[in-house]
Specification:
Blueprint lengths: L3 E3 L2 E3 L5 E6 L5 E7 L6 E7 L5 E3 L7 E6 L4 E6 L8 E8 L16 E2 L3 E5 L1
Length: 121
């Protein structure tokens, strides 16, 4: 099942970017990112059933994940951007239960988007 991301682009340090992901019927949705030469890392997740969110320490307090449109889609609002936030950002989703919907999970998500580039300079 395809997830469709949008909203990437370039921003200055300290600026903001908002990413969107359109999906349908998943219990858990999240954002991951991968910078050149680095491993993919979890950024934020949200349980569509409970609204519970989790964030990587590196973005906590700067990024906000939220649902919209009857919980079939989500945003990632990224504020106070830093050059180290530069990466390809991927939307992911599947039907894991709320207790497992966390960026700390070792279980790969089943569905992924094609990615959207965010560049901070």
């Amino acid at each position: 099942v395809q997830l469709v991301e949008s909203g990437g682009g370039s921003a200055l340090a300290g600026g903001s970017v908002r990413l969107s992901c359109v999906a349908s019927g998943y219990m858990c949705m999240g954002w991951f990112r991968q910078a050149p030469g680095k491993e993919r890392e979890g950024v934020a997740t949200i349980s569509t059933r409970t609204g519970r969110t989790s964030y990587a320490d590196s973005v906590n307090g700067r990024f906000t994940i939220s649902q919209y449109n009857t919980k079939n889609s989500m945003y990632l609002q990224m504020n106070t951007l830093k050059p180290e936030d530069t990466a390809m950002y991927y939307c992911a989703a599947d039907s894991r239960p709320p207790f497992a919907c966390t960026v700390l999970t070792d279980v790969p998500f089943q569905n992924w988007g094609q990615g959207t580039q965010v560049t901070v300079s």
